[in-house]
Each structure stands twice: as structure tokens, then as C-alpha cells.
Amino acid sequence: MPFRDLGKFTATFCRLKHGQGFRLATTARSFEEINRRMEVAGIDPHDREKAAGVFFAYPWQEHFTVEVLPITWDDNDLPGYPRARTPCSVCHEPVMDGRHLTRDGQDLCRLCAASSSRGSGA
After folding, report:
1. CA dist., res. 65 & res. 59, Å (int)
2. pTM
């Protein structure tokens, strides 16, 4: 199953054949309300068992937005054998399936691209 970590508490389940997805996303207010409920109940948010009880008792209809949406997926994002390997111009490690960045005519892995951005004052 393809996975993209975007740093959000969301999930989109895709039907690639049909170009359609089902997306669940948390609302900002749900976490605020869950935190408020834990505070009122005197629950330490780091007490996983007790915090989970408050989290799962919160109505899912208020916790999530639900959306059906069209999905497009690049072939490079699909699981399976890599379709392409591009060597990084700096570290020379191969970067799979178009996940490299090109700057000033050089192909870079994301780590080297980030390092060169920090080093250049950008």
C-alpha cells in the first residue's frame, strides 16, 4: 500500500483503478476538545491507556471530516520494483523513482538538497 507521510493525522484510502479516494482528516477543534476533556478529568496526556479512553470516547463524526475525492497517482508512487534510479550528485547514493530534486543541473537526494540549502544561506 503506498504511504505518504505529510505530518498530518489523516488517511486517504484509494481505489486507483477507479481514480477515487476516501479521505479522513482530524479537525483542529477535536484535539482541543479532547485535551480539554483530559484536563477536566485530571488525566495526564502521557498516560496512554487513560488518554486513549478519552480519545476513543470522542464521537468520530466530530473528530473527523470525511470526503470522497478524485485521486491521481504517479506510477512512481506505486509499490513494486523501482522504475528508475538516479544517483545523487553529492553523496552518489541512488534515489528511487523520481524522488530526487534537480538544482542547477545537478540531481540531488533530499538530504543533500536540504544540506546545500542550509549551507547557502537559503
Report:
1. 12
2. 0.55
